[in-house]
Amino acid sequence: MASHAGHRALGLLPILRLLSSTPRHRRPLCSNISPQMKTFALILVLLTNAPFLALASVAAAGGELEVAPRIIAGLLALALVAAIGLLLLARLRRLPAKGSRVMGALCLAVPVLWLVGSLDRGIVSGQESAFLFVVCVVTGGTWHVFKLLRTPA
Fold first, then answer.
1. Which among 87, 121, 91 has a CA at the least distance from the CA of 106?
2. 3-state secondary structure of 76
């Protein structure tokens, strides 16, 4: 009897079921997330994007910078405003047909613009590299929250 119960003790049947190639219907991982959690994720992303928008806006309006960095900062501010707008549209379920592609491009454009803006002296310092890493993490989080918000409830 002990030899027959061994496969149950090790959990071999669930493992074999997982390894089989039979297709199974699975719910999306975000299907059990409440609307309140989606709103919380949206607020969190808005609060993390707000400082970068403020930095870009101040740099674009600053008079002591040369023209090229001010243009890059203005483009960065516009990209962040567009990303925030698309997040709000996704939450309100009013996303345009190409909204996902535009949001993906914006999430790629923000770190690239930040890097181009950091290259004003031809080299990226350690502090600028740290800020670039933070911008990449924030835009990655923005993309994931966007994907969460555009899924049906």
1. 87
2. helix
Residue 86 and residue 95 in contact, taking contact as beta carbons nearer than 8 Å = yes
Could you give the CA distance from residue 83 to residue 104 in angstroms, rounded to a whole number?
9
DSSP string, 92-150: TT---TTHHHHHHHHHHHHHHHHHHHHGGGSS--HHHHHHHHHHHHHHHHHHHHHHHHH
Q: How many domains does the chain have?
A: 1
Measured distance CA(146)–CA(105) in Å, rounded: 13
Each residue's pLDDT tens digit, 61-117: 877 778 888 899 899 999 999 999 999 999 998 988 899 999 999 999 999 998 888
Note the pTM of the prediction, 2 decimals.
Answer: 0.73
Look at residue 115 and tell me if it is in a domain.
Answer: yes
CATH code of the domain containing 110: 1.20.120
Instruction: Answer whether residue 39 is part of any domain.
Output: yes
Structural domain range at position 113: 33-150
